[in-house]
Amino acid sequence: MSLTDDELRGAIREHAYLEGDFVLRSGRRSRYYLDKYRFETRPELLGALGERIAALVEEHEPEATRLAGPELGAVALAAAGSLASGLPFLIVRKEAKEYSTGNRIEGVFEPGETVCLVEDVVTSGGALLASVEALREAGAVVRTAVCVVDREEGGTDALARQAVRLRPIFRASEIAQSAKSAANPHG
User: Fold this and answer.
1) How many CB atoms lie within 10 A of CB 109?
2) What residues in the chain have per-residue pLDDT under 70?
């Protein structure tokens, strides 16, 4: 059974939305945190997210022949999107391996192929920007990134400055609004 957008948004809020004092990857402090592993490790949510990723790629980057996910957080999402779309995927390491093949990008692709990036939660866009750079250096065409949640804190603009459009499934404001509605269902 496929989840509706409202059901999926509510499930992400329920399982992954944490309130408190958190330091994000970007170094910024936040009063909330979206724990991606709490939604990426649940098969019913991962399957629904894979369907959404495949649909966004088909709509916004129909020329893509591959997906790519930065390690570690986006690998499960790229795999789910791959299963739903039939597109093979790549894994972008934070840095090249220091052993065996020495690869920074895992998986097979040809220079000139269009690759759509997949990410979990985007704040400043730092991890995606590093992946864009690595993929482009390897000869891939990267114009689009799909994410589960855009925290709406500058990532979209940072990616746009590198000619990459961010296409979120959800925005943080929607998840936060969903959390407020759940906490106060009568008003």
Assistant:
1) 19
2) 1, 97-102, 178-187
pLDDT digits (tens, 9 = 90+) for 123-169: 999 989 999 999 999 999 999 999 999 999 999 999 999 999 999 99
Q: How many CA atoms lie within 13 A of 44 on its CB side?
A: 10
Beta strands in the chain (DSSP E): 17-23, 29-34, 66-70, 89-92, 105-106, 115-122, 144-150, 165-171
Can you tell me the distance from the alpha carbon of 7 to that of 4, in angstroms, rounded to the nearest whole number?
Answer: 5
3-state secondary structure of 33: strand
- N-term to C-term CA, the chain: 31
- The count of residues in the chain is 187
